[in-house]
Structure formats: C-alpha cells, structure tokens
Specification:
Elements lengths: L1 H8 L12 H29 L25 H15 L5 H27 L7 H24 L31 H4 L1 H22 L6 H19 L1 H5 L11
Helix pairs in contact: 2-3, 3-4, 4-5, 5-7, 7-8
Length: 253
C-alpha cells in the first residue's frame, strides 16, 4: 500500500520517496510485524485459553513434553497475521510474485489450521492423517508450480537455479529438448515441478519435525524466519545482490 503511495504521489510529496527504498520498507515491515505480535499476541492467547484451545501432547512422546499440554495452539493464525498485514502495507503489490507467495502461504496456513482444529475437536494429538496432510501440501505446491510454468511460457519467470556467491552456476530445471514435441511438453517441466514440491513441502514440515513431537515450533520459526528475512533482503537489494557473486567479493589478506 505504501509503495503504491510512492508510485502515485512521489512527484508531489517528496516524503513518499522513502517508500521507494527496500531498506526502509524492510525495516518498517519488521517493526509492523513486531508491533502486531505484541499488541495482538496477548489477546489471541487469552481468547485461545478462553475457548480451551490447548495443545494435546502425544502419550508416547517424551515425558518432558507433557508439561506443554494445554499450551494454546493455533498460534499460526497470529504468525500469518504478522506476515500478511506487513506484506500488504509495505511490499510492492504491483509485483505478481508477492501475491503468489501470499497465496501459497495462506493455502498452507489453511491446511495447518484445519489440522489443529481437528486436534482440538477430538481433544487429542491426532488431526489430519499424515497422508492427507502431505497430499494437500503436494497438491498446493503442484498448483503453484503450474502457475510458475505459465509465467515461464510468457518469459516472466526463469526455471534456472542460482547459487549465492556463484552466479555463473545456474542449472536449468527445464528440459528444453522436450518442448518441441506437444506429447513431451509436460515432461519438460517435470524436474521443475518436483523441485517446487520438494522445497515447499519440505520447508513446511521441516520446522515441526525439528521441533519434535508436539508441534510447538515458535523457536524454530523464529530462527528460520530470521534467516529468510536476511536472504530475501539481500536478494532483493540491487546493491547487495551484485556482491553475492564471488568475483566481486573483496579479497582478505
């Protein structure tokens, strides 16, 4: 929203030029998320306690985890609010990829919400079956990959994989020789689709699996989100991303 104000009024109101800079918007998006979590966090936790939306721990889990029983669950709602609202306020909403990422994030959030809801309704740590949850995540990732395929067709997306510090290495997940035949056209994108599914489904489950059996994963979320924030900022900043090429790094010694 604020970036739109820059596009619309920066010629008349010079203060709006601040919204042009990714550094400024990244900082204020982070502050907005922090303020939202501080303001809404206590209220959300209180409401979850009020409606007895507590975490149920697996009986076969470690004894140390049993002390976490009753901890308010469905905290993903707060996390997603602190992602969506700052994004809508501070991101460049003219960028189609912002909307794509928001869409796939909300789709995964909906899957997680339904899983948590089933646990609360049944009053045990058994939500969706693992097969159902993985299937929904794979389907969401597949649809996301298909959209990216369409963008690739129009030259608005590249299936090349880039490596930080080694920009000269960029393998392509598209098998170009299959594109000429309509019967093998879909096969040309198969490696790319498998990669998208692997990254999205793997990332979605990695934090919970790392955290353990009970799914109270905010510590791992904080670590992962901090790292991704830095990488996203550097990749989106023209000045910094240029120096990710090893050839432009200053020599030491």
């Amino acid at each position: 929203m604020f970036y739109y104000l820059y596009l619309k009024f920066h010629g008349d109101i010079h203060l709006f030029n601040l919204f042009r800079y990714i550094t400024f918007r990244t900082a204020y998006a982070s502050l907005t998320a922090l303020v939202l979590s501080l303001v809404l966090g206590p209220w959300v936790i209180e409401q979850l306690k009020k409606f007895q939306v507590g975490q149920f721990i697996r009986e076969e889990g470690p004894q140390s985890h049993q002390s976490k029983a009753g901890t308010p669950t469905m905290g993903g709602m707060l996390i997603n609010l602190c992602i969506v609202i700052p994004t809508l306020l501070w991101a460049d909403l003219t960028n189609l990829f912002v909307w794509l990422v928001l869409g796939v994030s909300l789709a995964f959030a909906a899957i997680g919400f339904w899983d948590d809801y089933q646990k609360v309704r049944r009053r045990q740590n058994l939500g969706m079956t693992g097969r159902t949850k993985i299937l929904l995540q794979v389907l969401t990732s597949f649809l996301f990959g298909v959209v990216l395929m369409g963008l690739t067709t129009f030259g608005k997306y590249s299936t090349d994989l880039t490596f930080p510090f080694y920009k000269q290495i960029h393998p392509d997940f598209l098998i170009a020789r299959f594109l000429s035949n309509p019967w093998t056209y879909v096969l040309a994108y198969l490696p790319f689709l498998l990669f998208v599914i692997l990254v999205l489904v793997g990332s979605s489950n990695a934090v919970n699996l790392t955290d353990g059996l009970d799914g109270l994963a905010i510590g791992c979320v904080l670590i992962a989100a901090s790292g991704l924030t830095v990488l996203t900022y550097v990749a989106g900043n023209a000045a910094w991303s240029r120096y990710l090429d090893v050839e432009h790094l200053p020599l030491v010694g």
